[in-house]
Amino acid sequence: RMGSLLKRAEHNADMLALLFIDLDNFKRVNDSLGHLEGDQVLTTVSERLIGALRGSDLVGRFGGDEFVVLLTDLTSRADVIVVLEALLSVVEVPVKADGRALSVTPSIGVAVFPDDGRYADELIQHADTAMYRAKAKGRATYQFFESSLAETAYADLVLEDELAQGLTRNEFELFFQPQVEATTGQLSGAEALLRWRHPVRGLLAPDAFISVAERHRLMLALGEWVLREAAATARRWREQGLTQSHGPMRIAVNLSRMQFNLDGFADTVQRVLAESGAKGQWIELELTERMLMDDIAHAPKTLAALRAQGLTVSVDDFGTGYTSLAHLTELPLDKLKIDQSFVARLPDDVGAQAITRAIVQMAVGLGLTVTAEG
User: Fold this and answer.
1) Are the C-beta atoms of residues 176 and 193 closer than 8 Å to each other?
2) CATH fold label, 1-145
3) Distance (Å, rounded) from C-alpha 40 to C-alpha 19?
4) Domain-wise residue ranges, the chain
5) Where are any strands of DSSP class E within the chain?
6) Burial, 185: exposed, middle or buried (Cβ in 10 Å; 0-12, 13-18, 19+)?
7) pLDDT at position 274, please?
8) Per-residue confidence at 32, pLDDT binned at 50, 70, 90?
9) Three-state SS for 301?
10) Longest dimension (CA), the chain
């Protein structure tokens, strides 16, 4: 039917819009509640999509948690935006599943006929590209296709291949930023900083490649490499006697959302520690506030399993995210890291002083330690 609608639109010089809709973090619903409940959520979402569209529009399930919508009888992009806003609002309404209210959010990519393509496969490809950009912008939003996105998609493809090769060729390295006790000046640990020694572009910081790794699921392999290398380094430091007369000398590792949301992540950590000959007490795991809030239903169980292995759990960049104070008291945590944006303004900025003091006092009251990120 889509083919006939495209032919008619071309004959009449009509404007159409193809929407590629992906449900954010839907795999988590399936994994935690089972496929039957997951299918019920998909059915509810389908009904909501149909209810928000006109009879002349076309909607279909593309596969898994993805839907394709073809909007007809359009006069401008403003018409498309009206529909997009309506779809975002109806899909975001909590869905009842297994007696619980689950929030499901969509990321939507848009390709316009004939500007972005004249054939179904071309429109779907471009809308899919735009959808991934919508996810990168923060999910629960939409993105129109732009020609620059196609160029970015090609660049991503090249970089994805180079990342995979970089892992097999051992092109990645860890640098270590020291952590020091403020009262004594004693070295107490270090944060592992990932760098890629690219054969052509030289030494690259994560900003140059992490977003691509996350979009193409290479972050799982890369994140496990970082954890394994940090654990092996912690073991070597002790074998070489480098940790004597220092503090706990933990190595802090930044986790990605994709890693933390992975089913059995605590088991993966346990396996990596065992294979590296390292103890959990030697490693600190850093998560952002956003990661904790995005998975607040499952985070406490995962954090408890990690701490049971002796690992320290730290909230990175604290003060810039979304943590509810009520949730903070419920989460099994060990440390808060005050974001550098506050620390850099000390001691002159009165506002930064007040926020930093409040975070320290709250942490002490909760039995947590504090790191100031310099």
Assistant:
1) yes
2) Alpha-Beta Plaits (3.30.70)
3) 22
4) 1-145, 156-372
5) 15-23, 58-63, 66-74, 95-97, 100-102, 106-113, 142-144, 172-180, 187-198, 202-204, 250-254, 283-288, 312-318, 335-338, 369-372
6) exposed
7) 97
8) low
9) helix
10) 80
**CA-CA distance, 111 to 127, in Å (whole number)?**
5
d(CA 32, CA 40): 14
Q: Kindly report, residue by residue over 108-150, the tens digit of the pLDDT.
A: 999 999 999 999 999 999 999 899 888 877 778 999 998 877 7
* Separation between Cα atoms, residue 194 and residue 315, nearest integer Å: 18
What CA–CA distance (Å, rounded) separates 250 from 289? 21
**Mean pLDDT across the stretch 158-173?**
93
Query: In the CATH hierarchy, which top-level class contains the domain 156-372?
Result: alpha beta
Task: Kindly compute the dihedral angle of the four CA atoms of residues 286, 290, 292, 298, in this order, to the nearest 10 degrees.
Answer: -130
Residue type (1 letter), 276: S
Rounded to whole angstroms, the Cα distance separating 110 from 78 reads: 13
CA 370 to chain centre: 24
Q: Which residue has the tokens 């209810």?
A: 51
Q: Which two tokens stand for residue 193?
A: 């900083």
Contact status, residue 280 vs residue 311, Cβ threshold 8 Å = yes
